[in-house]
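S.,

As promised, the NAP run. Input:
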Amino acid sequence: MKVLVTGAQGQLGQELKQLANLHPEINFNFYTKSDWDITDSKKSHSILSNSKADFIINTAAYTKVDQAEINPEICNKINFEAPKVLAAQCNELNVKFIQISSDYVFSNTKHIPLAETFPKNPKGIYAISKSMAEDSIMNTSPHNIIIRTSWLYSSFGHNFVKTMILLAKSGKEIHVVNDQIGSPTYAADLARLIVDCILSPVNKFEGIYHYSNEGMCSWFDFAAEIFNYLKIEASLKPISTQDFGALAPRPAFSQLDCSKIKNEMHCEIPNWKTSLHKCLDNLKKTF
Ligand SMILES: NC(=O)c1ccc[n+]([C@@H]2O[C@H](COP(=O)([O-])OP(=O)(O)OC[C@H]3O[C@@H](n4cnc5c(N)ncnc54)[C@H](OP(=O)(O)O)[C@@H]3O)[C@@H](O)[C@H]2O)c1
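Predicted complex:
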């Protein structure tokens, strides 16, 4: 089996690369942004048609959510236009397309876990770009795969966990919002899930799925657990979303209901604290 991975230097891309070492039965081909800029449609077509791949996992994305409000064109180009073209090319060349999407396609305030069928209501440039990509990918072919995830972190790349540790080291007071609720997701768990799905004998792996770690918390709780596990004395203070004043809007409640993937793919999903501790153990080796 041949699998192409875009965005290989991102969090999920690097976790997939780690996992690839354990799966010699899969011929993984990893592409960083400089190897393959997904906005270059000619290059995409050339790579896809020469590779004869079975799957492409598109982890490449513009993930600077606040910057997207200032640079909407570049965000749309990477997050919407490029995946739209990739999906069409994959359809033509018979490659299964796996797109990673986001809990930001929702803007829910009710505390109800969100199933795949929950009505979308993206707010902000990043959220709208991810939602439009989903629509175009599913319109191209219902056999494509979209995995929505939330609050992704890893020992690789840039993320909330690493930012919190750096801020604590600086000794400054740390303000973290306590009125946005969701589920942190360890990118290593998501990478494993994707590989398990690709290898699964269940042949109806298609359509939209939700995957995040089990349980939920606020960003404040998430930060508190990082400091608690690492035994770091940090000056952590709760703040409201309104007072924090980020440029882009965020969903107030975005816990994903992952029943569909659990039932169809027979997978068990670790609790967010268990996975966070694993990631922190990995990070400790690099402190
Ligand atoms: N991070 C989260 O909290 C979160 C939550 C829900 C869903 N997601 C989704 O999950 C997926 C993976 O996220 P992640 O956290 O692994 O992202 P990430 O760490 O930001 O990695 C994305 C990678 O894509 C690369 N990239 C950007 N523009 C590109 C282009 N035109 N062509 C090729 N590569 C390009 C980036 O390179 P540069 O850094 O050099 O630009 C980066 O290496 C994304 O689809 C994201 O939208 C993320």
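The two ends are 37 Å apart (CA to CA). The chain has one domain: 2-158+185-214+254-269.

- D.
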